[in-house]
Amino acid sequence: MWIRSTLAYRASFVLTVCGNLLLTGLDFVAILLMFSQVDALGGWTLPEVAFLYGLSVTAFGTAQLALGSMASLGGRVRDGSFDTLLVRPAPVLAQVAADRFALRRLGRGVQGAAVLGWALVAVDVDWTVAKALLIPVTLVSGAVIFGSLFVAGGAFQFLAQDAAEVQNAFTYGGTTLLQYPPTVFGRDLVRGVTFVLPLAFVNWVPAAHVLGRPYPLGLPAGAAFAAPLVAAVCGALAGTVWRAGLRSYRSTGS
């Protein structure tokens, strides 16, 4: 329904997607401006940083397209309209994800994929079958990891009721963090996004394997292929948190 309503005004939709694409592209413009002054950032060249950027933004854009509406859950909890989702013959999570579905979010994923395509051509990599297959696996795993953050953040809103910005700190903030190489950050921060909130498996760890660079924190060689396992664990944990939040919901009484 939301897709049909969006496409009813095709010119407006195209302009909105293009505007979204240009706005999200400003992040990469900032990176280009940095490299206009330096040859490397934390020891990483422009094509290598673009590779990190493309993996992160494409994965995040996919998750945002599917689950970006989770941020509006707090409003439904506050005004009591969440009750209407509970009586419909469809999974509540699917209904929340589809609520005011914004097809214009395609712009971020498309822009990220364009940068990733350029980076794959520009980076100096001795390609093997394993490395080539690791790219789509990493993108899917990264989308699941970001999607898990969206779901867990939505579940937290059952408790906080107005926690969209807290959720955004980990989702939007996470993808911004991953656009830069781990070598520019403190070791404690890298530990946190590797072992506590495993965002490093969205791009840092797989990219290190593809590019032939040292793994963050000296992780073992097989860590690059652990992204699907990490994504599965994140998804299972997010599902558990979501069910717990749903059980705790008590409505507004109105």
UniProtKB/TrEMBL annotation:
The chain crosses the membrane at residues 12-38, 50-68, 109-127, 133-152, 189-211, 217-242. Pfam families: ABC2_membrane_6 (PF06182). This is Transporter. The keyword Membrane applies. Keywords: Membrane, Transmembrane, Transmembrane helix. InterPro entries: ABC-2_transporter-like (IPR010390).
